[in-house]
Amino acid sequence: MKKIILLIVILPLFSCKDTQGRLTLTQGVHISNITIISSEDATYSPYVGHLVIEKDKIVYLDKNEPSVSGKFEKIDGTGKFVIPGLIDSHVHITEVQGMLPHHMEKYPELAEEFNKQMPRSYLYHGFTTLINLGGISEEQLTSFNAQPIKPDLFHTGRSGASVANGYPMNFAPEQFRFEGTPNFVYLESEADNIPAKFEPSDHTPKAVVSRTKNSGAIAVKSYYESGFRNMPKLPVPTKSIMDDLLSEAHSNGLVLTVHGNSLEAHSFLADVGVDVIAHGLWNWGKYKDVPKDSLPTEIRNVLDLQIQKQIGYTPTLTVIAGEEALADDSFLSNPELNKIVPKKLLEWYRTEEGKWFAKDLFGDYPAEEIHAIYGRIQAHAKLALKYLSDNGGLILFGTDTPSAPTYGNQPGHNGFWELKLMDEAGVPLDQILASATINNAKAFKLFSDVGSIKVGKKANLILMTKNPLKEIEAYNAIENIVLRGKVLIRENLSAKQ
Ligand SMILES: [Zn+2]
């Protein structure tokens, strides 16, 4: 008897279905006759069906129309398509695009408007889950989470696991660099250049991963970067450090994702067998001048090893495109930007002051030459991506928004751009969708909650008027974003002009 009472008490918590299979909702959404595009294994068989949400969860999914009663919103999905909310596994929500700290101090109102709009801009383009790959402070997390409407945000702790004086802590002035990188890894060869107050035992891979875990992170971010442009040669992690970061990450249930975009870095990281490489392979070193359509054997061998080990490969093609965008004004006149960038900030980007990074980067270099250089790098990046896509590589969608203080990587918009560049590279549309949903969710251990449309999962969905398995433009034909069961109208998320 006791058991039966217990069952009756417990049952309503798990199901809103009565014995006749009727759904009684208190705060529901019923989407009818919609083409459902989702997958548990990256193969897609779309079908017209019905989807019911109660509160923040999916409670029904089937070809047959359910019997629904109670309080709910009904959406006629006839002629429309629904996919899981998109996941961008490489963003930096801690930056204001195109600004340095002194710009933010000078124009606090621009920074504030940007930070208010930023989460909405990600949602505007269908991104309901973000992973911040790099440092994030408690204040930054609190302020993002205090926004009324925002994607789910995951992170990699207070700082990345950069080796002492390596990338990216090399950018910070020496007197702040160690305080600013609490999770730096001690490097014996840098011992003379590390202030004495930092104990080596606090900066072993084990100590760093343990701190990262305790700050609520889902992954550890590290770096293999020996330098680019005119940087002096930077210290990089040893094989034993990277091996230890990997095994410590795994014993703490975390994922190890590592910055690297050169042949040297990809080769090192493939050899170690890290979980995820946070960029594509576009810096081809001694092969940088090979024709745009040829993949050198040495590069193919590194990609083959990544495919064999199923290492996650994050193309981040917009890193290249977002820098190249600074070479001329056509980027800033794209009307799509009005939807996601506050008007006053867009105006500031057009001023001489707003173009500071373009001047730093390119000086008086002619635009055609810049496009020729970046065009070749991008062609190489696309070639490597296409090879992975043709040969069973594990592609994870990520943009690195913003990859530098460039206004060329705008929240949300950059994601749509990345999707288009992957399409241009020749990645099939089903693989593109999988990369931004199921692949990212599995790689970052979020799959029990997001990444596919399934009963019991979080109701994070996108409703589109075009089929994303037929045309890439579908990702810009979004009508609604369902965020934790709440139906949002896309246009209401756009920047108020
Ligand atoms: Zn990044």
TrEMBL record:
InterPro entries: Amidohydro-rel (IPR006680), Metal-dep_hydrolase_composite (IPR011059), Metal_Hydrolase (IPR032466), Metallo-dep_Hydrolase (IPR051781). It comes from the Bacteria. Residues 81-487 form the Amidohydrolase-related domain. SUPFAM superfamilies: Composite domain of metallo-dependent hydrolases, Metallo-dependent hydrolases. One of its GO terms (molecular function) is hydrolase activity, acting on carbon-nitrogen (but not peptide) bonds. This is Amidohydrolase family protein. It comes from Flagellimonas hadalis.
